[in-house]
Amino acid sequence: MPITHVLTDIEGTTSSVSFVYEVLFPFAALHLPAWVRAHPDAPEVDAVRASSGEAQASTERVIEIVLGWMAEDRKATPLKAIQGHVWADGYETGRLHGHVYPDAVDTLSRWHAEGLVLAVYSSGSVQAQKLLFGYSEAGDLTALFSHYFDTGSGGKREAGSYLAIAQAMDVPAEQVLFLSDVVQELDAAQAAGMVTCGLVREGGELPGHVCVGSFSEIRPRQ
Questions:
Q1: Any idea which fold 19-92 has?
Q2: Domain ranges of the chain
Q3: Which among 37, 45, 46, 220 is most buried, taking Cβ atoms within 10 Å?
């Protein structure tokens, strides 16, 4: 079947890992406490209480919990939602600009013009994804993407998540090309029937998958 859709990861694929860990995460850690204190009864804060099993946790305890999750790099949906709010303020006030590799910008723009349907799947919330691409160093790139998916679709290392995403896009999995820099994610997508391609920007290999060093080397329709 011909490839009609491209599903891409963000961290390490379209954008540098260092931007996430050296810019976004420190910014969130610095400003997250103030956001929680200003929104002590927000649904996202209550979700932290529910997920942690501490239904009566105080505001300060919620802050301790989410900062602990950040230190563990836990992919907790309530944490991602709160981070998204914090980052939104940073992007909207011009203190943050999303990093996207130039080769990704150029290639994604060309694919979109050629009629490929583009989608994002990241452990970061959909809100965070749209902020990164909407306030990127290259300008607003959100119009390139028709779909955004996060852990609400399931874990990125589970084949069922990719089946669910293909169903949500109303396309057979075999017509989707998935891009990532993590072999377990590529394995899961492959198990679901998707075509895979690994990004190895720093070299190396992702066993069992075609690998490239940049988006410019990818040929979805060949």
A1: 1.10.720
A2: 5-16+99-217, 19-92
A3: 45
